[in-house]
Amino acid sequence: MLRLHLSRRRLVVAIRIVSLAALLTSLAPGLFGAPVHTTYLWHMHQPIYWPDRSTWYPSRYETAYETITLGHSESDVYAIFDKEDRVHDYQNYPRDAIASVVDIPDAGAQISFAAALIENVKSLADNGWNGGRYAPDWYSDYRTARSWTTSGGHSRLPQLLVAAHHPIAPLMDARALEREIQVAKVAYQVAWGDTNFSKGYFPAETCFSERMIPVLVRQGIEWVIVADIHISRACQDYPYLAQEDNCDPPNPADQVNPAQGYYEAITISRGVTVKTPPPFGFRPHYARYVDPETGASYSIIVVPAANAMSWNEGYAMYGTSEIDAIAPYNDPAHPMLIVFAHDGDNAWSGGYSYYNENVTNFCHEAVSKGYEPTTVAEYLADHPVSPDDIVHVEDGGWVNADGDFGSPQFINWNWPLVDANGNFDIPNGWAEDERNWAVLTA
């Protein structure tokens, strides 16, 4: 009887310990500070495939319906817009993904839907193309999900601003970039139905330079997505290795951010190793630009996208293991924000399994691990960035671009001219992207 009595006592104690542990886990963010946060950026874009004067509407350029009808483009524009997943990407998949996580108080994602794509999809929808593949109200599910809010009243699926025609902004004149954003705002009203513009901005290909900051600030933008690698490479002790980085070494003049000591290294199938210091490289900061002529200072919040994790998350079912590896470095007073940023209409991350399985599985697993799915706006409201927390962001884009890997010279879009044999020939050579920029800057 004594042995049975002791066993019962031990059982009661064990139950109480388990209950206390569960209570502490549920209260952990409040007791011990904020956990690692997670969110998404899904980028949607298709270009104007025949950017010549429209045959039907001579006051403007062609959009997709006219290009398909007249057969103008060398690209198979019909197949591009008829792809089953893409039809849903541009109408309902993101809404479905967010609907699957509304039980999580702040879970959401950001969308950047380029104005050129809005024009293309609208032209197809307005003309009932291909048996009505795009509904007249193709934007309806996006508007619905945009109206859903987090616990703090922020949209669960905000439409970020993105330059209208997907330009590589650091290579543009400031006036041209400003016009691109103004055009984007007009398209924003057409698609999303109001002028409640997001305060966030996504630069195409995540290509960013601090020279852009004055334009973004003038357009009412308060935060911008940047590639984590360009905060990391600007740290004094960045561990550059040519065989891992696969691009130019950092310019020592850029390396003004504090030394971090430890860098989490993740090698991705693209052929590059991304090295980011936790928590510094995974949380928002301010960046600043000072006009050298006037001395005027402009500041904006830079939100680092987790380049390596984004690549892996966009190509297969994704769990929390890569976050688990850096979670011990989290600063609860200034928690990390893991942003998965990638195309939302290409490769696996544009498909059914991504939106309808991967997103909900990851978010609920994240919650079970004590992490907090959120949106950027909700995170910034909950964890304001100190104006004194200023970093330098090296020029460059995301590491996804083959042959560029985040080069501060943007060589994927700014490749030197070559002859027919591939040898550099600046006076007489050719490179498609370089010549495209020549047209824009002529």
Care to describe what's here?
This protein has 442 residues and is α/β, with parallel strands linked by helices. It folds into 2 domains: 376 residues, 7-stranded beta/alpha barrel; 31 residues, no CATH class. It is 36% helix and 13% strand. The protein has 17 helices and 12 strands. Strand 8 and strand 9 form a beta hairpin. The radius of gyration is 24 Å and the shape is globular. The protein starts with a helix and ends with a helix. The N terminus is likely disordered.
Topology of this structure?
Layout: H1 2-32, E1 37-44, H2 64-70, H3 77-82, H4 84-89, H5 93-99, E2 110-113, H6 115-126, H7 129-132, H8 140-147, E3 159-160, H9 174-192, E4 200-201, H10 213-218, E5 223-227, H11 229-232, H12 242-245, E6 264-268, E7 272-276, E8 285-290, E9 297-305, H13 307-313, H14 321-326, E10 337-343, H15 352-368, E11 372-373, H16 376-382, E12 390-391, H17 432-441
Helix pairs in contact: 5-8, 5-15, 6-9
The fold-level CATH name of the largest domain is 7-stranded beta/alpha barrel
What overall geometry do the principal axes of the alpha carbons give? globular
In the predicted model, the low-confidence regions spanning at least 5 consecutive residues are 1-6, 11-31
Number of self-contained structural domains: 2
What is the share of helical residues? 25-40%
**CATH class group of the largest domain:** Alpha Beta
- What is the percentage of strand-forming residues? 5-15%
What's the number of extended β-strand segments?
Answer: 12
Q: What separation lies between the terminal Cα atoms?
A: 95 Å
Radius of gyration, in angstroms, nearest whole number: 24 Å
Order of helices and strands: HEHHHHEHHHEHEHEHHEEEEHHEHEHEH
**Class from helix and strand fractions:** alpha/beta
Please count the helical segments.
17
